[in-house]
Design goal:
Blueprint: H1 2-14, H2 18-40, H3 71-76, H4 87-91, H5 97-109, H6 139-153, H7 169-179, H8 183-206, H9 214-221, H10 241-246, H11 261-279, H12 282-291, H13 293-303, H14 308-312, H15 319-336, E1 357-360, H16 366-373, H17 377-383, E2 402-405, H18 408-418, E3 423-427, E4 430-433, H19 440-447, H20 451-456, E5 471-474, E6 478-482, E7 489-493
Helix pairs in contact: 5-6, 7-15, 8-11, 9-15, 11-12, 12-13, 12-15
Length: about 500
């Protein structure tokens, strides 16, 4: 019996199990479907026959497939400094014969291209820039990829032709980043840029600046007027308070002109023009805009070169600045042909900014103006992003009226509603009635003032002995509304 069972037992052990058979079949089908998806993403005319010596018809950018990059894989490879660049796979399917032909042709025709395996470091130790640690990059492969993509999706650069755009590993990295891990954010920037473009480009042109600086604002803030950084820079051009005052932007408790797209663009144009006069190079001007002219001068002095790319390979520029200029150039190239890179951009009508203004002689409440004009208060604040508080500024330089942005249709209604608005009087002291459980520190924090200032204008007040029900003078703005009909007063407060 045992002799008869032994051969059958050996045969059963040698045969593959059902699970192995199912997995093998599934893997084969998956591989076949993947190859078919890549193959069908390109027109059949782009596949040459064996006898063809030249590959062929122009490639249709609408059919260019963009492979998705995995965020989790990018973050897992942070410490792998010797990993091979995946830019090739991010641009073309593996069976893209035309793309491979163009890259190989460039490599064969440019045997003396820059030396390969040139490594560099990008921003590290932050979640946002973990994708930026892939190195080393092969410079020749990057240039070949740049050449192939320009042939397949059309000429991307120069976008305006004023600033030179080069094929550099840092630029190519950020192109890949914006198309993959940073795709959703970059698409928002492109959508906002459709409406910002018409507002910013004429100002740059009138000031004699290259229109490419539009994309400097894109990288700085994503074209957001309310963008705010940890260094207290704000607005679409991210002005610091000291620089903003130097270039004539007004900042007080009522308005912050750094948030105004027109006024801040004009100030940024003057600053960039001054930086170009100092350095004589647009790349260095952009670097100085980000890091400050002092750091850039020190880097030039320590390295003995004024070539930005050599400075970026040194240790004398901040990592943020090393990535800053490449980000601007990458944004420029992608914006030159967004559809060719897989971005379907449609302008959002809500992002529009009217250019018509009306003169507001007396301070007016934004909420009341929006109600009488029949528009949402949020929309009116969006048209006038420099307003900090809920009213228009009561005091202007030289007594000039405040220019409130409205559409032409609404501007025609302004004269009719202006006389119906409540009168507003602004005082410098607010009376706060002390309630049970309140402390002087809590009151000061509520109105964003220093406790010492409260004590200075309240003689005899002790912080440890606050009496419930008494009025406490607080040195902050108080708004008194006076109705035109009844002349009754209602006290409200606003915060600086």
């Amino acid at each position: 019996m045992k002799k008869n069972l032994l051969p059958s037992l050996l045969i059963s052990k040698c045969q593959p199990s059902r699970l192995t058979f199912v997995l093998t079949t599934f893997f084969s089908i998956y591989t076949l479907l993947s190859m078919m998806s890549c193959a069908t993403s390109k027109p059949a005319t782009n596949r040459p026959s064996e006898n063809d010596s030249v590959l062929v018809p122009p490639f249709n950018p609408d059919n260019l497939s963009n492979a998705d990059a995995s965020d989790s894989d990018d973050e897992a490879d942070d410490e792998d400094e010797n990993s091979i660049s995946e830019l090739d796979d991010a641009e073309f399917c593996r069976d893209n014969i035309y793309g491979e032909y163009l890259k190989n042709k460039y490599l064969s025709d440019n045997l003396t291209a820059q030396n390969p395996e040139k490594s560099f470091k990008l921003a590290r130790n932050t979640r946002r820039h973990r994708y930026a640690t892939r190195s080393p990059y092969n410079q020749r492969q990057i240039e070949a990829l740049f050449f192939a993509r320009s042939r397949m999706v059309g000429e991307m650069v120069p976008y305006f032709g004023s600033i030179p755009v080069v094929a550099n590993p840092r630029v190519e990295h950020w192109i890949s980043y914006f198309k993959n891990s940073g795709r959703s954010s970059f698409l928002k920037w492109l959508v906002r840029g459709e409406t910002v473009r018409d507002l910013v480009l004429p100002i740059l042109k009138d000031e004699g600046l290259p229109p490419e600086f539009l994309f400097l604002s894109m990288v700085e803030s994503g074209f957001s007027n309310q963008a705010y950084s940890h260094a207290k820079a704000t607005g679409p051009w991210q002005f610091m308070p000291g620089t903003a005052q130097l270039y004539g932007l007004e900042m007080n408790m009522w308005i912050d002109e750094r948030r105004d797209p027109v006024k801040s663009t004009l100030a940024a144009a003057h600053l960039l023009r001054d930086l170009y006069k100092d350095f004589g190079d647009w790349y260095l001007a952009m670097a100085a805009y980000n890091a400050g002219s002092g750091r850039v001068r020190k880097a030039i002095r320590m390295t003995g070169t004024s070539d930005f790319w050599k400075l970026a390979d040194s240790a004398y520029l901040p990592v943020e600045t090393k990535n800053y200029v490449p980000q601007v150039l990458a944004a420029l190239q992608l914006s030159a042909n967004p559809k060719g890179h897989g971005f379907d951009v449609v302008a959002d009508p809500m992002d529009g900014m009217p250019v018509t203004t009306v003169a507001v002689k007396n301070p007016a409440q934004i909420s009341e103006v929006s109600i009488k004009l029949g528009i949402p208060e949020k929309l009116l604040r969006h048209w006038n992003p420099e307003l900090i508080n809920a009213i228009t500024p009561p005091q202007r330089k030289g007594g000039a009226p405040y220019a409130l942005r409205l559409t032409p249709e609404l501007a025609n209604k302004w004269t009719a509603i202006e006389e119906t608005l409540e009168l507003v009087e602004v005082k410098d002291v607010l009376l706060h009635r002390i309630r049970r459980g309140e402390t002087l520190g809590a009151i000061a924090a509520r109105y964003r003032v220093d406790t010492k200032k409260i004590l200075s204008i309240n003689p005899g007040l002790r912080a440890s002995r606050l009496k419930i029900g008494t009025d406490l003078a607080v040195p902050t703005t108080s708004i008194i509304q006076k109705s035109r009909s009844t002349k009754k007063q209602a006290s409200t407060r606003t915060r600086a």
